[in-house]
Write a structure and sequence with these properties.
The protein is an alpha+beta fold. The protein is built from 8 helices and 4 strands; from the N terminus they run E-H-H-E-H-H-E-H-H-E-H-H. The protein has a single domain, classed as Alpha-Beta Plaits (2-Layer Sandwich), CATH 3.30.70.141. The protein has a 4-stranded antiparallel beta sheet. It binds inosine-5'-diphosphate and magnesium ion.
C-alpha cells in the first residue's frame, strides 16, 4: 500500500492537538506504519523545504518548523496522498474548508498545523528523510477486513 509522511508541526504539539489529529487519521481507517516525537534540526528543515528556498516566507518557515517538537508519522493506505491531503485542507486555516484539519483547528496565514507529502516521489524521499527502515513496522490490524474489502485478494 501507499505511504506518506505527515508532520504534526510545532503549533499542533504546543496546542495539544496531537491526539485529536491522529484520531482523525485512525477513524478514517488509515494505518500508522511509523510514529515519533522529534525536533527537526535547521539543516533538515532547510532540506525538507528546499523547493521553497528564495521565497519570502522561507526563513520564517524554517524558524517555525524548528521552534519545538513535532510528531512524525508515516501513514499507509490506498490513495494515501490524496486522502491525507484532502483531510488536511488548503494550506492556511483561514481558507481551508470546515471539516478539514487546517479548517477546523487554525486561522493563521503562517502556522498551519500539519505537513503532508504531495506526490509519491516526495513521499518516498520524505519518509526516508525522517525514518530508518527498521522504524517502519509491518503488522496486521484486526480490523483490516472491515476497512477495505479484501474479498478479491486486493484492498478495495
Ligand atoms: P502545503 O503545506 O499545503 O503543501 P506549500 O505551498 O507546499 O503548502 O508550502 C509549504 C509550507 O510553507 C506551508 O505548509 C506553510 O507552512 C509554508 N508557507 C507556504 N506559503 C506561505 C506563506 O505565504 N506565508 C507563510 N508560510 C507559508
Ligand atoms: Mg507542499
Amino acid at each position: 500500500m501507499d505511504r506518506t509522511l505527515i508532520i504534526l508541526k510545532p503549533d499542533s504539539v504546543q496546542r495539544g492537538l496531537i491526539g485529536n489529529i491522529i484520531t482523525r487519521f485512525e477513524q478514517k481507517g488509515l494505518k500508522i506504519a511509523g510514529m515519533k516525537l522529534a525536533c527537526i534540526s535547521p539543516a533538515v528543515a532547510h532540506e525538507h523545504y528546499a523547493m521553497h528556498k528564495g521565497k519570502p516566507f522561507y526563513d520564517s518557515l524554517v524558524t517555525f518548523m524548528t521552534s519545538g517538537p513535532v510528531v512524525l508519522l508515516v501513514l499507509e493506505g490506498n490513495n494515501i496522498i490524496d486522502v491525507s491531503r484532502k483531510m488536511m485542507g488548503a494550506t492556511f486555516g483561514f481558507k481551508a474548508e470546515p471539516g478539514t484539519i487546517r479548517g477546523d483547528f487554525g486561522v493563521s496565514s503562517a502556522f498551519n498545523l500539519i505537513h503532508g507529502s504531495d506526490s509519491p516521489e516526495t513521499a518516498k524521499a520524505e519518509v526516508a528523510r525522517f525514518f530508518k527502515p527498521d522504524e517502519l513496522l509491518e503488522f496486521n490490524r484486526a480490523m483490516e477486513p472491515w476497512i477495505y474489502d479484501l474479498s478479491n485478494g486486493i484492498a478495495q
